[in-house]
Amino acid sequence: MAPEGSACKEVESYPAVADYAIATRKPESNSMTTKSSFGFVGKHGIQSNNGVYELLECPVCKNLMYPPIHQCPNGHTLCLNCKNRVHNCCPSCRYDLGNIRCLALERFAESLELPCKYHSLGCHEILPYYSKLKHEQHCRFRPYNCPYAGSDCSITGDIPTLIAHLKDDHKVDMHDGCTFNHRYVKLNPHEVENATWMLTVFKCFGKQFCLHFEAFQMGMAPVYMAFLRFMGDDSEAKKFSYCLEVGANGRKLTWQGIPRSIRDSHRKVRDSQDGLVIQRNLALYFSGGDRLELKLRITGRIWKEA
Ligand SMILES: [Zn+2]
Ligand SMILES: [Zn+2]
Ligand SMILES: [Zn+2]
Ligand SMILES: [Zn+2]
Asked: What is this structure's pTM?
C-alpha cells in the first residue's frame, strides 16, 4: 500500500493486531453488543446524524472520510488526502502522524446506514455508509448542472431552479411549443471559433428542451451543429424524439434523433456528433448570397413516442 518500506509494515501489522485483540479478549456476546449498538445508531441515524457526521468528517477538509482513515498518536483523525497534504504533521497537535489507521472508526462507519444526501430533494434511500457515495453520484435526485455552454457556470439545481437561472442570468430565449423555426445569422462565418454557440429553450409536453447551435472545428474542418438536450433524466429523455431540418435551393439536410439528457455535458453530446452536423461549405451554400454571412433557418419538431 504505502510506498515506503517501514511505513508499509506498520499499516499491515495493524489489522492483524486488531483482529487478534477482538478474537481473544472479547467474548462473543460482548462484540455482538458493540456491533448492535453501532447498528442502532445507523438505523436511527436520521435523528443522530449530526453527531455521526461530525465523527466521520475530516477535521481539515470537512469531507466525509473513507478508508483508509488515519489518526495521529494522540487519536486525531484525518482523511488520506489531507494526511498527504499536511506532510505527515497532525494539524491538531503537531505530532508526527506516522502511518496509523483508525480501524475502529472505519468499522464503525461500516456498520452505519445513512440517508442519501439528496434527502431534501426527494430521495428516500437509506444506504450503508460505504455505498452512499456511489449512490449519490448517480442518485436521480441529485442536482443538475447548468446547461448553458460556453462559460464555466457553476450553478446547480433542480429543473425549475435552472430554468429561472437560464432566463435571469443567461438571458436565454424561452419558447412554448413543439415545433420551431429558428434563424441563425452570423457575420464573418469564416472565423469559426470553438466558443460560438447559442441556446434556446422550448417548453412542450410540460418539459423543457435545450436547442443548441454552434460552430466548432471538427478535426480540421469547420462545422455547424444543432442538437437537442432534455432538461431531465435520461430515462425520460428517451421517451421523446425530435427532427431538425436545414436547407435552401431545393436541397435539405435532416436529422432525427432522441434528445440527450442534460446529465450528459454539452461537450460530450457535441463530441459524439449526436445531432445535425452541417459542413461549412454546405452551410454557406444554404445561406445563399456572397458567402460573407451565415444565414441558416433550422426547423424542427419534438414529439413523444407512444
Ligand atoms: Zn480531509
Ligand atoms: Zn494529533
Ligand atoms: Zn439518493
Ligand atoms: Zn448557468
From this structure: 0.69
Where are the domains positioned within the chain? 5-111, 144-304
Residue 26: pLDDT band by 50, 70, 90 thresholds? very low
Q: Near ion ligand 1, which residues have CB within 5 Å? A: 58, 60-61, 79, 82
> Buried b / exposed e across 102-141, counting CB within 10 Å, b at 16+?
bbebbebbebbbbbbbbbeeebebebebeebeebbeebeb
Lowest pLDDT segment from 20-29, 177-186, 190-199, 254-263: 20-29
Q: Rounded to an integer, what distance in angstroms lies between the CA atom of residue 59 and that of residue 80?
A: 12
Cell (9 digits) for 295: 444565414
CATH topology of domain 144-304: 2.60.210
Closest C-alpha to 197, from 216, 169, 176, 182: 216
Q: Which ligand has an atom closest to residue 123 CA?
A: 3
pLDDT computed for residue 163 by the predictor: 96
**Identical fold at 5-111 and 144-304?**
no
Ligand nearest to the CA of 114: 3
Q: Identify the CATH number of the domain defined by range 5-111.
A: 3.30.40.10
Taking the centre of ligand 3 as the mean of its atom positions, its distance from the CA of residue 47, in whole angstroms, is 18
- Which ligand does the CA of 75 lie closest to? 2
Tell me how far CA of residue 50 lies from CA of 54, 64, 65, 169, in angstroms: 6, 12, 15, 35
Nearest to 60 by CA among 17, 33, 92: 92
